[in-house]
Model the fold of this input.
Amino acid sequence: MRTGFRRGWTWIAAGAALTAFAVLFTPVVAGLVSHWSHDDSYSHGFLIAPVAAWFAWERRHRAAAAPLRPSWWGLAGVAGSLLLLLAGVAAAELFLTRAALIGLLASSVLFLFGRAHLRVMAFPIAFLLLMVPLPAIVFNQIAVPLQLVASGFGEGTLSLLRIPVLREGNVIALPEVRLEVVEACSGIRSLFSLLAAGIVFGYFTDPRPPARVALAVATVPIAILANGVRVAGTGVAAHYYGAAAAEGFFHGFSGWLVFVCAFGMLALLGAAIRRMAPIGRRAGRVIAGPSLGAAG
Done:
């Protein structure tokens, strides 16, 4: 009886918390949606929340079986998240308000349900971080080096193909055309999207955490390599067919093609990992591998 009353009170409190959450963060969510709509680097954000919701739904039975032990530490986290929200609003810093959203979600689970429930829901909540755009200063610290890496890769490839080329920073000069590797061509868009895709791919194809981490980490060099090939290919096309080959439909299509190729490379890597270390086998003996629903 006491347990039933406790659970009933918890769900009432959860409903009240959800209502307050909606009131406080509706402007934040609206701003996120607008950002995803206007910034191609984060257009994958539209898919992150539904996928995270599915991950949470998949864990519903584990959450129901977990002991209900609300923690006052969660209330401290709620207070800290609200302070972060206020600081973000006062400083007009969008990243803080959006980080507060995820912090409040995690803290509310801890406060209302306890540590066991937070452990169950940790992966879906952490996955939501992929939908939050980075602060401009951090974004630029990533994008600028990627521009230089991509332009350097393009220059090296064109030189190997004996195509006259001169590079000045992120500008590749060919005899008939100059190509500028701008932020949109730095590969940062495919990097963020491929990272999200790699995490989801690893989740569904391999229940072992080390393999999943390896696939997620591998998305970084794969995205950089794929974008370097794209820049080099654009330079080759521009050299033989003119500037029109480096812009418009062909330029956009090459971006999609490179992303598909990069994901194919990730899939091949996943297959190689499973071949070298078969799931369910360790040191020559068969072991019981965790199910997809129990891992992550």
User: Anything to note?
Assistant: The chain has two domains: 2-133, 137-286. The mean pLDDT is 83.
